[in-house]
Amino acid sequence: MTLEQYASDLESCMKKELSLFESFYRAEEKIRQHIVEKNWPQLDRELSAIKKYGEKIEKAESDRNKIYQAMKIYCGEEIHGSFYAFISSYCPEKSDSLNHLYRELKVCVMKVKTLTMRIDAYLSTVTTAVIRVLDEIFPMRKGTIYNSSGINRGADSPPLVLDREL
After folding, report:
1. How many CB atoms lie within 10 A of CB 126?
2. Could you tell me which residues come within 8 angstroms of residue 80 by beta carbon, excluding any fewer than 6 positions away?
3. Which of 11, 13, 53, 99 has CA 20 to 30 A from 72's CA?
């Protein structure tokens, strides 16, 4: 295999991975909307569908890394330099395209991470609010459990209240 073939394979692999990340982002955005709208049946369907993206992205990432490592071996490159420097040195005719795809891939990954953090922050806020409301409504219930002889013992885990309509 020639370096040009490796570069073409890397380019197509990066396009595929970028497309998968963009699809994953759209699916995660739907999940966020379903959580905010409390649309639990649709949320369940989206959660099961998003698992498939994870497997596909993992495979695409592995393929991209294998091609990149094969390129480095082909060129005799053992230095752990940056992707940009390697591509610019060994694939000048494809460097603009590959560097652009790499930057887009990094931006898309950051968008997914940001959306995930937004969902996490929203859920943490809602959970904290529900816990505070329950503490105000039931101030005497603080997780204290008594055994049959009346001795106070701690709970194994905090109680869980689930209300799908809340």
Report:
1. 13
2. none
3. 53
Is residue 81 helix, strand or coil? coil
Helix or strand (DSSP H, E) at 165: none
Q: Using N-to-C axis directions, what is the helix angle for 3-37 and 95-137, rounded to 10°?
A: 20
Cα 138 from Cα 132, distance rounded (Å):
10
Tokens of 121: 């922050």
Considering only 43-47, 73-77, 114-118, 158-162, which range has the smallest mean pLDDT? 158-162
157 has pLDDT over 70: no
Stated pTM of the model: 0.76
CA 84 – CA 98 distance, rounded (Å): 9
Question: Quick one: residue 9, left, alpha or beta (phi over 0 = left, psi -120 to 50 = alpha)?
Answer: alpha
The Cα–Cα gap between 144 and 155 comes to 7
Name the strand (E) or helix (H) holding 144.
strand 144-146
Report residue 13 as tokens: 């692999």
Per-residue pLDDT reduced to its tens digit, 127-154? 899 888 877 777 666 656 667 777 776 6
